[in-house]
């Protein structure tokens, strides 16, 4: 089944800190294993995002899907923030939260949903497999982190596998959907980097929650405009896909992902996402009936080897 039929921060405290690159906080060794597990759980959750989008698109337009998923997720997050009487973030954190909102809450979901109208889930998943390298690069620039040469070599090797797989599947002629997906990589990597950095100052679920709340005026307005303008057929697939996107991908997945990224670092956590397109390929076969590309097993072995190397190097 084709996807056109079906288809996530801080100011300096002192002048000297402002002029120096931000260094990752020291992480106790005991936090590495739980952190990696949380990040991996986030990846597993995200791997269902494209299939969930494909299901939602069976009964809704792309703008309706994106706006409703964010509104529903904001309702859950806002309720948690109110129930626990969470205080507003410090003023210096709002710029980072805005980046998370623009990249993870709005930009990435919208660009990928539009792309999935003309791209298969499996193809889109492999293109977005470049996200780990993009996130690592953003993190290095934003936080002043300096991963080892071995880390970068393994990350580049993983990206090369993803690019080669993508070119082979697209026939060497990237289309509009690919351009949308590449743009989605950039905004999502920025959101992931800021969110991971903010998660060192506040719980990850609060980062996600405030980003969703900050975007609420845009998403509520967008939903009000999109609902009457786009076709709406509330099938079981469409409703199930939308609910997963809202509560799984848009909130719960980001909560565990940011918490894991705060524990093990953005660069290392991002490399776990090399496994995400492979998991999505499996879901595309099981849930959408897409045909698994013949090169997938080879790509799976190569990517998993790259993950093993990056996780054993200092990121």
**How many structural domains can be distinguished in the coordinates?**
1
Strand content: under 5%
Largest sheet at a glance? none
Mean pLDDT: 82
| Cα gyration radius (Å) | 19 Å
Number of helices: 15
Query: How many β strands by DSSP?
Result: 0
Counting helices, strands and paired strands, the structural category is mainly alpha
**Contiguous uncertain segments of 5+ residues:** 1-30
Order of helices and strands: HHHHHHHHHHHHHHH
Q: What level of helicity do the residues show?
A: over 70%
- The best one-word shape is globular
Topology, pairings included?
Layout: H1 15-19, H2 32-46, H3 49-57, H4 62-83, H5 94-115, H6 121-127, H7 131-143, H8 149-170, H9 176-198, H10 204-214, H11 216-229, H12 236-264, H13 266-272, H14 276-288, H15 296-311
């Amino acid at each position: 089944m084709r996807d056109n039929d079906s288809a996530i921060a801080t100011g300096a405290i002192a002048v000297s800190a402002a002029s120096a690159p931000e260094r990752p906080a020291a992480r106790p060794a005991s936090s590495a294993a739980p952190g990696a597990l949380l990040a991996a759980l986030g990846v597993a959750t995200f791997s269902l995002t494209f299939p969930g989008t494909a299901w939602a698109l069976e009964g809704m337009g792309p703008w309706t899907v994106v706006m409703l998923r964010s509104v529903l997720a904001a309702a859950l997050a806002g309720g948690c923030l109110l129930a626990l009487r969470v205080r507003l973030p410090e003023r210096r954190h709002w710029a980072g939260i805005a980046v998370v909102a623009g990249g993870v809450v709005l930009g990435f979901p919208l660009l990928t949903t539009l792309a999935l109208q003309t791209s298969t889930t499996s193809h889109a998943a492999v293109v977005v497999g470049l996200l780990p390298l993009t996130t690592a690069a953003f993190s290095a620039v934003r936080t002043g982190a300096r991963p080892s040469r071995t880390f970068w070599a393994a990350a580049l090797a993983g990206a090369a596998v993803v690019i080669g797989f993508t070119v082979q599947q697209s026939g060497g002629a990237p289309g509009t959907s690919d351009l949308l997906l590449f743009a989605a990589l950039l905004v999502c990597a920025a959101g992931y980097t800021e969110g991971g950095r903010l998660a060192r100052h506040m719980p990850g679920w609060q980062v996600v929650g405030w980003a969703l709340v900050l975007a609420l005026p845009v998403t509520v307005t967008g939903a009000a405009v999109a609902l009457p303008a786009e076709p709406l057929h509330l099938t079981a697939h469409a409703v199930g896909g939308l609910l997963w996107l809202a509560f799984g991908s848009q909130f719960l997945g980001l909560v565990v992902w940011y918490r894991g990224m705060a524990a093990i670092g953005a660069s290392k956590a991002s490399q776990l996402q090399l496994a995400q397109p492979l998991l999505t390929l499996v879901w595309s076969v099981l849930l959408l009936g897409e045909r698994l590309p013949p090169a997938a097993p080879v790509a799976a072995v190569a990517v998993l080897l790259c993950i093993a190397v990056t996780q054993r190097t200092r990121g």
